Structures are given as structure tokens and as C-alpha cells.
Amino acid sequence: MIDPDWHDDEKLIKALREALSAAGEVPAAFVEAGKAAFSWRTIDAELAALTYDSALDPLDALAIRSESAVLRSLTFASDGWTVEVELTPGAVLGQLDPPEVGTVTARGDGGELATADIDELGFFVLGPPPAVPYRLVCTTQSGTTILTGWITP
Amino acid sequence: MPTAGGSAGAVENLLPLALSRPHDAIASARSLLAADPAAVEASIAHQAWGIGLRQLGDVTTAVRQLRTALRLAEQSGRSEREADVLATLGATLGRAGRSREGLARLDRAVELSRGALTGRVLLRRADVLLVLGRHREALDDLRAAITRLRRSGDQVWEARSRNYRGFIQLALGGTRRADADFAVAEKLYAATGQEFEYAEARQNRGLVAYSRGDLPAALRYLDDAGRRFAAVGVVWPDLAIDRCGVLLAAGLSAEALAEMDQTIASGAGTATKRGELWFAAATAALAAGDPAGARERAERARRLFSAQGREWWSVRSSMVVLEARYRSGERGERLLRAVVAVARRLDALGASESSAAHLLAGRLALDVGRSRTADRQLDLAGRHSKDAPPIARSAAWLGKALRAEARGETRSMLSACARGLDALDEHRLTMGATELRALATGQGAELAALALREALRRDDPRRLLEWGERWRATALGVPPVRRPNDEQLVAELAALRDVVRRLDAAPDPSLERERRRLEKAVRERALRAEGGALGGVRRLPVDELIAELGETVLVELVEVDGVLHAVVVRDGRTTRHEVGPLAAAALEVERSRFTLRRLAHGGPRGAAYRGPSLEVLGTRLGQAILGDAQGLLGDREVVVVPPGRLQALPWGLVPALADRAVNVVPSAAAWLRARRFRPPSDRRVVLVLGPGLSAGRTEVLRLAEQYPDATVLADGDATAEKVLRALDGAWIAHVAAHGTFRSDSPLFSSLRLDDGPLTVYDFERLRRAPYRMVLSSCDSGLAKPVGADELLGLSSSLIPLGAAGILASVVPVNDPATAPLMLAVHEGLRDGQSLAAAFATARREARGDPVADAAGRSFVALGA
């Protein structure tokens, strides 16, 4: 951090210059995250994009007789697959559509955060919920890999 | 008060002042010393200054002042003066953790003194002995001190001696004798205007109440003491330690830990007190399920105590370390030997923890197959005095039960289980607050499990039912203690509503802080409520239950060691069916609720959805939760009793139950009670509409047409006070409102009214709940499972208040889809059907439209 105790304009300009040049340097973690994201691009995955997020849809809350949407629900969809996700305080619940047995992994910048089985009805409970941004990777028995967009807790 | 300094009468007043108002005393001492007085007066002034500093926590500087006072006393050549300062210095050194040096000063002071002064010196020596845990020697000193002080009419010092003696009696388990001493001390302090010490005596009476298991009284005494300490400007870490003990006994372990960590972080307390603070924090961490944290804190405490030569304390700290190692999963001979050794030392020291130590030793010995050691240790654990507090008695009964089980003596094991649970019943009923009663049951879970396991071994379904009921939803068995005239509570609840309503309009950090402050105030007021004279707990009369059931089938789900069993009572016969793992059932419940929530949102799920249908989910749910017991239901009406952990279960999804009347209750006893509630003679109907529900409005308007005489509260009239007044003793009440379940603090779960949320605390102000109540809102049927098998929530709170039947939802429900369902339910009610039957009919009619169907399966009929 820069000492906020500027005594004259020159010091202020110097501080601003330092701040600008610091912004130009990309933090190492960002570079790593970028590389990780790039390597994922190469795996043969179905990319499922966010199509619904209850947090971005306040109108939906009106249809429900609940004060506040305690739970956040998300839907990710690709051409062939839908992943419905619900974030509860204790777990990430999900439903794969069409249902298929497999495993699900939450991956963040630094790698694997949590993993769980997907049961024969396509349902999974992944816990505890990651505290950092992550993507879900669903790998089904038939060999398909579905990668969701980023989920920010 | 006799003086030791002859002409120094006015100066002498400084000494008592230093204890009650340290700041004032220090100021007076300084101005007195500025006038350069004679050695005697100067000695007194420095002594008062030192005492004042010590009371304010600055022991190092206090000791320096007292050494000066001693030097001046020696110069004065008056042996009484010297003895008095030696005693103060010795006591202060003792408090600073330099006990040996302190005791040497005190021994010298005893030699130098005579009469009442000897009494005062003995008291201070007792104080140091007490810090060292040498209780019996301390008692001897105090007995002699009280005799001398009473004879010479020294009221203040007699009060102090009694206060100390009471404290030691308490540490040795003599609650009655302790309270007698504290009561005399309190009276003497009041008569002599000793404000600080009066507060201390109040605090100690709180400790007695705690030892007797009367937690609400303990909290009241401690809070009163806290206010009095604050009034004289003293930070008193002992109070935090005592509150920690009470909160732990009440099952509020996370709060106790937070309070201790906060006190430690504030840097309060002398060197000796720091150790005690760490010790209390360690016990709190242990109770809060953090054995690693407990071990670390207990080690710190033990190191401090060892350095201060305080054996009683360091052995108790060692016990916490060992308990933490056990809770971290450690087993085996090494740990067993350590625990046995510590238990023996605790016995020798007369510490109240010795029973728990023997219990742990017994468990460890059982685990490594050392049956003779186990038998001996459990035998020692089972010994207790009648005077012991209920929780200690129940622990002793657990020791007896485990011993009997190891010996294969079933009868005496079951009787020990029963008596242990009786002790906890007694404990629970001293409390008025629903939350404390529910949490208190956690302590009996192991006793209940022992008996359940035995019933299972014998494959005796009736006994399984009886024991399953013995420790289930007991907190809901009696209504909460009513506080209808507590105006302050009413005012706080009203203020809370106002704040939440304003917060909903616009977020505001300062309002958010105010909300938290008010919630804390409401909750703490409730926790302090005294228990009523309830005359014991009634056991489930199984024969009466069978008679009342008639054609109805009861299915009670009982969990034993993670496996779910269904006990079915049908046509007077009781059978047991193993269902499967509880975890598998919990997963199916989670899955069903997930799907219903998605449907409630209307959801993005269209015709393309290829996931499992509600029928498939329901079938799996039924199999996981009822198993083969489904085959016994025929076409009868059913009463289901799920364990607390599975209460949020959408029973309407289970195909076997979909078309019939199903009542859900937290216990069979609760159903029996609900059956016996009689409807009120005046058929008063109340319809309430909360703000922000468009379809709910139609619902209430249509209902108002169907019930022309109904009281309708809507559009600004649906305020908490009006709604509560209308609900009290109504025949049918229908509330359409937004609902919120608060898993962090379930008694603040609420229904949204025009002036803000109506919480469980508000419901508990009702004299009588409505006979039948429809809560047409989200999550209104949710409750938090706590304690052994207890529920805290909106609808569960209405059962003990006299509601015979409640229709509530266990998931969020869709507003437009709910309205037609509710109209159909009331049609059935007006036709004279029971709530469960009316709901079953309405549910059948909702088939077809998937969203309406989901809404129909999201509600449950609670009660009878």
C-alpha cells in the first residue's frame, strides 16, 4: 500500500505513477488461472453456459411465498446437457439432465476442491461448498465431460 | 468497624472504599499522601491505593504500593498495622500467581495479629489457599475467621469470610451450605453499603443456581451482578467464566466459546485469572466440538497453573487435554492409563469432574477389552451424592448403565437409563425457554441410545416405541412459559418488526446492527425465563395410544446406530421393520426437496426435461423412508412420526401416501395430545393476508366469501398485535404471507405481516393457538433439529400451544399454484373433514398441472 500521507503534489503524482505501473503487472495468480483455464479448453468437454441464475432474477422471487431466496439456484446448459445447481449453506446440490451415473468435481484456480458421485438419477450432493470461485466438471459413465461456467460463491 | 490505627479513623474508611469504589479510593489516597501524613496514615493510604489498583487489575503496581505500605507500617511500630498490610500483600501476591511468597507473608501476619484482625488475616490466607486448590485448609481458616469476626461485630469482614466459605462449599459440592453463606453475606454487604462485594455475592448466588441446574435463575443473577460491576466501574473476568459455565450447561457452546475468546482477547484479568480464563475457554471449545482448539487452550491453562503451583487447577486442565485427545479419536492403553491416573488425582482433590473422568476411563477400558478395569472405573463413575446437580447425576447414571451393559445386566441397565433421563427431565423443566429445553436433551442421547439398542436386540417393537418416545420431542411436550405481560419483550418485538420492515425497504448497516441487537435482547430475555411447576413428564401411555388410533395406522421411525427402523402400530399390533440407513433416507429427502424447490420457481424446466419424474422420486423416497412398512398401510389413515433430522419431508410425494389423510407429528405423544384438544365453542374464523402476495390476495378474498363472518386482516390491518389478538383461541385461522425459515436462529423464523415479521417469540405470547391453522406460505413447516431429537420452528411451536392441526409447507411454494389448493382445503374443512383429510382431497384435485401438483406435495398436515 502507498502511504496516504502526501505532503505535496509531486509525491501525489509519484504515487499515482506507481499505482498505474503496478496495475500493468499481472499478478502471478492471474497468469496461473489463465493457463489453467486454457488447458481446460483443450479437454474434450461440453461447455455448459449459465442460462439461469436466481440471484439475477428478482422477479422470480415474487412468485414464491418466501421472504428471501436463501438458496441460490443456477442452470447451466449445453446442446445436449443441462446441469441444475442449487447452492445451500452446507452443500452444492445438482441434477444432471439427462440423468447418468458419473462423478462431479469442483475445480478452482488451484485445482480440485471437492468431488462426489453422481447417482443413477443424475443427482449429486457436493460438500462442503467451495469458498472460492469454481467450475463443476461432470464426467459421466459413457465418457462425456461437461464443464459449467464459473460459480462465484 | 474496629480500627487498627487508633487516630486514623477517617483514613481507615479508605480501605473498604478501595474495594467498592477503587477509582475514588485511589484519588482520596493520593490527595491524602500529598499532605505528607504520619507513617500510620501514609501506610493506610498506600494500602488503599494498592487494593484499588488490584481491584482494577493492575497487580504489578499494586504490589509496589503495598510494599511501600508495609515499610511504613514497620516504621510506625504498630504490629496490627503491619499484620494488616502483610495480609493484603500476601493475598495480592497470591492473586498474582506468587502463592508461596504470598503464603509466607500471611503466615507472618497470622502470628502478628489478634482478635478480629486475625479473622481478617485468616480470610486472606484462605483466599490464597483457595487459588491453590487447598480447599480443606481454606475451610479451616474460614471457620476460625467467621467465629472471631462475628464475636467482634465486624460485619463487612464476616460477610467476606462467608462469601469465601460459600464459594468453597460450592466447589466441594455443598450447594445448600453455600447458598446459606452467600445469603448471609449478601445481607451483611447490603447493610454496610459494600456495592462491589454485594455484586460478587449476587454472582455467587448465580453460581449456586447453576449448580442446582436452575439456569434461568443463574443467568438472572449473573446479569444482575454484571450491571452492578459495571456501575462501580470494574471489569470482572470471573463473571465471564461463570456465564461460560451456565451457557455450556444450557447447550449454547458456540456462544460460550465466543464469549471466553473475547474476554481473553480483551486482556482482562490478573495472572491467576488468565489461567482460569483459558481453562474455561478450553471447556467451551470441547463442548463446541473443537477438540484441537480445546487441547491447545487447556495446555496453555495447564502451563500457567503449573507455574503458579496450582495443582487442583492443573489436574483439571490435564483432564480437559485428555478428553480432547479422546474426542479427536485417540484410544488405547496409553490414553487409558493417563485418564485413570488423572481420575485418581481428581478424587484425591475432591474435584467434581472426577465422575466424568472415571466415565471416560471406563469407556476407554471397554474399548481395549479390559473388562475388570472398565467395571471398576464405571463403578466409580456411578457414585454420586443426592446433592449433585442433575447433569452430574445423569452422567453418573450413564456410568452405571454402561457398567450394567458390560456385565450383561439388562434390567439394571434399563433402570439406570431411565433414572438418568429422569434427572435430565428435572433439569429441563427448570427452564422456561423452548430453546434451552430442546438443547438440554442432547445430554440424554447416549442413555436413550443404550436402551433403544437393547430393545432392538430383543426385537421388542413395543419397547422400541416406548424408548423411542421417551427421548423425542420432549421439549414440545409442555407449552413454553408464557410471558403475556412482559411489556419490555412486547416493545422489543415491535421495535424489531419496525427495523426489519425498514431494512426491507432499503439496506442500511446501522439498521442491520440494530436488528442484531434487538434479536439478541429478545432471545436473552427468553432464555432467562423460569421454568414452571410442571409436575414431571408423562410417559407415552401405549394402551391409550392404541385405543385412540382405532383404524388409523401409526408409523414411528426410530434411528438406532444410523439405521432407520419403522415401528408400525395397526389394529393394536406393534411390529418393527428395518428400513435402511438413515443417510440413504436423508439423501432421498434432499433430492425430493431439491426437485420441489425447482418446480416452485416455475423453473426453466420445460417439456424437454428428461430427469426423473415426481413419481419416480416419490417411489424412491417411500422405499428409503418407510421400506416394507408401506405394505402394512392398506388404505387407512396414517400418522407418521419421523426423527427430527428428517422432519422436512414432503410426505405427499410418497405414492403409497399420496391419496390418503396423513398426519405428521414430532412424537406419538404429541398426536395423542392434539387429538384431545377440543375445538372452541365459538366458531371464529380468522383470515390474514400479508403484504406482497398477488395470488394470496385472491385466495383470501375468495375465502372471505366462503366464511362471511370471518375476521379479515389485510391491507394495513394485518399487524402483529391485531393478528395475535384475532388468532388467540380461534377455530380456524388462515394466514397467507411470505414465510422465512431462519436456520441460524429458528425461533426468529417468521411470517411477513404489514408491520414486519411475526416470529415464534410472538406466537409464544398466545394464550391459546388456533384450533386449526393453515400457514399458506413458504417453509412454514420447517424446523431445525436440535438436541437429541427436538425441533425448533414456526409450526412446531404451535403444537404445545394447543393447535390440533396445522397445514404448513416444508419447501418454498409457488404463489399462484397455492391459491386453488387452499380453497379446496377449506371446502373440506367446512364439510367437517379433518385437516389431513381435507388436504388429501385437495391434493388429489391438484393433479395434472405439474406446478400445482408440486405445490400440493409441498405441504404437510401436522398434528391430528
Task: List strands and helices in order, with pairings.
The complex is a heterodimer of chains A (153) and B (864).
Chain A: H1 9-24, H2 28-42, E1 45-53, H3 58-62, E2 72-77, E3 82-87, E4 92-97, E5 102-108, E6 111-118, E7 123-126, E8 135-140, E9 145-148
Parallel strand pairs in A: 1-9
Antiparallel strand pairs in A: 1-2, 2-3, 3-4, 4-7, 5-6, 5-8, 8-9
Chain B: H1 9-12, H2 14-20, H3 22-34, H4 39-55, H5 59-76, H6 79-95, H7 99-112, H8 115-131, H9 135-151, H10 155-171, H11 175-192, H12 195-211, H13 215-231, H14 237-249, H15 253-265, H16 271-287, H17 291-307, H18 311-327, H19 333-349, H20 354-367, H21 371-381, H22 390-407, H23 410-429, H24 434-440, H25 445-457, H26 461-470, H27 487-505, H28 509-527, H29 542-549, E1 553-560, E2 563-570, E3 573-581, H30 582-600, H31 614-625, E4 638-641, E5 662-664, H32 668-676, E6 685-689, H33 694-706, E7 711-713, H34 720-727, E8 732-736, E9 739-740, E10 750-753, E11 756-759, H35 760-763, E12 772-776, E13 783-786, E14 790-793, H36 794-798, E15 805-809, H37 815-830, H38 835-845, H39 850-858, E16 859-863
Parallel strand pairs in B: 1-4, 4-5, 5-16, 6-7, 6-8, 8-12, 12-15
Antiparallel strand pairs in B: 1-2, 2-3, 9-10, 10-11, 13-14, 15-16
Protein name (chain B): CHAT domain-containing tetratricopeptide repeat protein
Pfam families (chain B): CHAT (PF12770)
Organism (chain B): Kribbella sp. HUAS MG21
Order of helices and strands of chain A: HHEHEEEEEEEE
Widest sheet: strand ordering of chain A? 6-5-8-9-1-2-3-4-7
Question: What amount of the residues of chain A lies in strands?
Answer: 35-45%
Count of DSSP H/I helices of chain A = 3
Largest interface: which pair?
A: A-B, 29 and 44 residues
Largest sheet of chain B, in brief, is: 11 strands, mixed
Average pLDDT of chain B works out at 89
Unreliable spans of chain B = 1-8
Mean pLDDT of chain A: 79
Helix content range of chain B: 55-70%
Q: Could you name the ranges of chain A where pLDDT drops below 50 across 5 or more consecutive residues?
A: none
Major sheet characteristics of chain A: 9 strands, mixed
Secondary structure: number of strands of chain B: 16
Shape of chain B: elongated
C-alpha termini separation of chain B:
70 Å
Structural class of chain B: alpha/beta
- What is the overall silhouette of chain A? elongated
Organism (chain B): Kribbella sp. HUAS MG21
Pfam family, one (chain B): CHAT
Domain CHAT (chain B): 615-850
Protein name (chain B): CHAT domain-containing tetratricopeptide repeat protein
